[in-house]
Amino acid sequence: MSAEAGTTNIAFSAATEQVFDKTLGKYPNKRAALLPTLRLAQDEFGYLSNDVMEYVAERLDLPLSKVLQVATFYTMFYKRPHGRFHIEVCTSVPCCMMGGYDIMRQLEKRLGIAPGEVTEDGKFSYAEAECLAGCGNAPLCQVNSEYHEFLTPAILDELIDGLQ
To answer: Of 57, 102, 110, 121, which is least surrounded by CB within 10 A?
Structure first.
């Protein structure tokens, strides 16, 4: 797909377009608005497909390579569809030592999916996160943007039951 104007079927809704315009007004140039624009695009389209990243590049007058660099660097940006509840499990050294991989194994067993996959009903997905900055409360995970600390497999099962 070309990034030329009018060649993509992707477009912000009217409400998101208003937020986008306000966002641009907060920054000295379009390039500086890349992170919040990627967040808007992800909220609007669910994840950052190649077509969505081309659309963002077009809207910000940036090379696609710059958008790809940023979108692939940050784990908060999803490059493929994820579940309604996206669980990120911290596996940095403190979390590993406190059972982070036990949490990963329990998710795999409980949900029947591997990291990066989505349950058949589209409700859950999970991924390994390098660091969620909660070392003193290890092990922990983040469900969408909400932290859950001092996890055990039993506490994780309660959490999943609550999300069902």
So the answer is: 121
User: Where are the alpha helices (H) located in 63-152, listed in sequence order?
Assistant: 64-73, 93-97, 100-111
Map out the domains of the chain as residue ranges: 14-73, 85-163
In angstroms and rounded to an integer, the radius of gyration of the C-alpha atoms of the chain is 18
Q: Tell me the per-residue pLDDT of 56-96, one tens digit each, with 9 for 90 and over.
A: 999 999 999 999 999 988 878 888 888 999 999 999 999 98
Question: Judging by DSSP bridges, how do beta strands 146-148 and 124-129 pair with one another?
Answer: unpaired
CATH topology of domain 14-73: Arc Repressor Mutant, subunit A (1.10.10)
Pairing of strands 146-148, 141-143: antiparallel
pTM of the predicted structure, to 2 decimals: 0.71
